[in-house]
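Thread title: Can someone regenerate the structure for this chain?

I was given the following input by a collaborator and told the matching structure tokens would be attached. They weren't. Posting the sequence so someone can regenerate them.
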Amino acid sequence: MKKHNFSAGPAILPASVMEQASKAALDFNGIGLSILEISHRSPEFSAVLDEAEILVRDIANLSDDYAVLFLQGGASSQFFMTAMNLLDDNEMAAYADTGSWSAKAIKEARNFGKVEVVASSKEQNYTFIPKGYEVPANAKYFHLTSNNTIFGTQYHSFPETKVPLVADMSSDIFSRPIDIERFGLIYAGAQKNIGPAGLTLVIVRKDALGKVNRTIPTMLDYRTHVSKKSTFNTPPVFAIYVAMLTFRWIKAGGGLEAMARKNAAKAQLIYKEIDDNPLFTGTVTSKEDRSQMNATFVMAPGKEELQATFLDMCKEAGCVGVKGHRSVGGFRASMYNAMDIESVQVLVDVMKAFSERYG
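Best answer:
Regenerated them for you:
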């Protein structure tokens, strides 16, 4: 039986990417060595790294003003690296608090400068994206989390600001076109839309660096990795290779415009069923803020005892990873770029059959 992978991350990857990566794990490009064992300074891997950067620049329409970095440590390390590199002790950065990950970013940034939370949906359990606020013009930058995997909300447009945007795009990177020039820095853990866990993509304006007075540890200074082209230390070779294959797949599939159309169609399909099905209720209070990557929903009031039964039906149909995050419960269908709409239809069919049986 085919498995339909709705896991939030590590998440689904394109089948063609998995096939190519599995072959390279045994013999990379016919050289008689695995991609897992070649030197990160070999010409074979240098070509991979170069192509990965070229593809990122092409897909995102990046100018030479930006550096592309392939780092380790996950997005969680970027919570403090961004502030460490961009924010001085006597400066202020503005943050939006829209979920668990933004709250952690706020906590880390406070170690390096002043943080003003200018928008928050915390008191309403992060069920919407805040609106109608102003970002102070004296802020060094405005940090936001573009998509919230746990609570199922997403920025579908970014607030107008007079300061650069810094964004954690771990769960919706390369799912749609964005105006890159509005961003001073973007970071993303790979394990949603890019590749396997262990790689973190950073896109940063070069002219934003080197402006703080503090001494930054060498390994945590973005300028180190810019100057060494992401090879100051041994990079995650295999993860970068898989990411490169995924970037190829995105480009061959029509780029970000095509990804956006497919993701919109998948989201429309499942949200229609959530709204129409009497046994389920969506958790996002403002429908315009619903995530196209992570649809979150719960049992309708009075039907909570059926949750385990629904998950069993999902499992029988090959739908895995539907159980919601442990902190909020309920259900979550993560629909990253590599998920076909046919898999979303299988889940919708399960929801319909569940309603017919127990509604």
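Residues 255-358 form a domain with the Aspartate Aminotransferase, domain 1 fold (CATH 3.90.1150.10).
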